[in-house]
Each structure stands twice: as C-alpha cells, then as structure tokens.
Amino acid sequence: MSILKPNLEQKISAFINQAEYPCVGAKTALNKGKITVKQYDDLRCDINDTDILTDIYNFIHRFELEKDMYSSLVFTFEQPEVLSEVAFDKLLWQKLQQLHDIDTCMHDWDKHVDDNPHSPNFSFSLGGKAFFIIGLHPGAKRKSRRFERPTLVFNLHEQFDLLREQGKFEDLRDHIRQQDEAFCGSKNTLLKNHGEKSEAYQYSGKQQPERWQCPFHANQN
Q1: Where do the structural domains in the chain lie, given as residue ranges?
Q2: What is the pLDDT of residue 221?
Q3: Do 179 and 162 meet the contact criterion of CB atoms below 8 Å apart?
C-alpha cells in the first residue's frame, strides 16, 4: 500500500530545485504541479506490485498529452536505506520484471517501441504505454541521480514524441546534457539518442560493462 509522508513531496521538490539541477523537464513539471508522488515500503518487496501497477494505470488513464506535458509519476521506497549502484541496478530490473509479469496478462507491449532491452528502439511498457524510467538512490555516483531513498521516475514516451514533432526535443535534450555535465562535474557517457542505443542502459544510472546483458526478459503473449 502507498504511504505518502507529509514531507516527502517537499523533499522531492527540494531535490529538483537544487541550484543548476540539470533536468529542466523535471523543473517544469514541478512548477506546473505535474509530479505525482507515491511512497512504498520496500523496493525488494513483491507484495506492493499490484498497487504500483494500479498507480501506473491511473496515471495513464488521467494523462492528456496537450494538458499534461512534462508530467512524471514518482515512486519512492523506504527500504533499503543503503544501496550500491550494483545493488540498485539489480533491484530496479527485478522490480520491472515483476511489474511486467503481471501487466503482460492484461496489456500488450506498446507497439511503437521494442520489448528487447538491447534494441535501439527499446522502451519499457506498462499498461500498453511506453515509459522512460529514471532511477535515483543514495549511492548514485552522479549527483543528479543521488536522492535520499530508492526512487523510480516514470515518464511517458508520448511527451518526447510530441516534443520531436514540435521541433523542441533536440534543443531540450542537449541543454539537459550540458547542464548535467556542469552539475556533476563530468560528462554522462550513458546518455545516447533514442534509436541509436537502447535506453535500458540509462535507467539505473549505473555504468554498464561493454557486453552487459540486461536481466529483463519480455514475456511472449
């Protein structure tokens, strides 16, 4: 069950409002009141999976592209308090696999993206909609990913597609990358363009080895 503490939204707001924080999309979402925050007990627990999926389905159901641009659904977890990048990466993919295993009984993969995590056109799909996922946690090496508790941020791909149609996406992407390099003190080598390399490499924030094998496997309906 989701258990939102009164000060959690303030902490997320403070994190995004850090001076020079690079993600202008997150700042815009915050200013527009378009960040939905849900808090759960333990990232390692599978008992909360159905509740998390309900939150995701509700988010999709309420989402209207023109009205809700720059919207994010944020899940924070109270446990575990201490995580290495390796441990967080493992738990992130474990959670996504668990959610997919339930979701696939009801929904097909978004037809606009691939379900192979090593495909350049991969994006994670739940409720029939593609999401770009951002992992945050206390042990992240990059400052822009370092939040006080394990967190998964879900952003609908539809938003990026509209920005591309409007001719705004590339400028926004390049600005974020420049700001991230300044904020963290080094270039983020994980950042690649969609269609060039799988976005799965970016989800947890961990630098993956050259021959990394993503642990996620899509179920075949």
Answers
A1: 8-202
A2: 63
A3: no
| pLDDT at residue 126, rounded to an integer | 98
The burial of 206, by beta-carbon neighbours within 10 Å (0-12 exposed, 13-18 middle, 19 or more buried), is given as buried
- What's the pLDDT at 98? 98
Phi first, then psi, for residue 129 (nearest 5°) are: -125, 140
* Model confidence, pTM: 0.89
The average pLDDT across 193-213 equals 83
Q: Model confidence over 119-136: pLDDT tens digits?
A: 999 999 999 999 999 999
Contact 125, 110 (CB under 8 A): yes
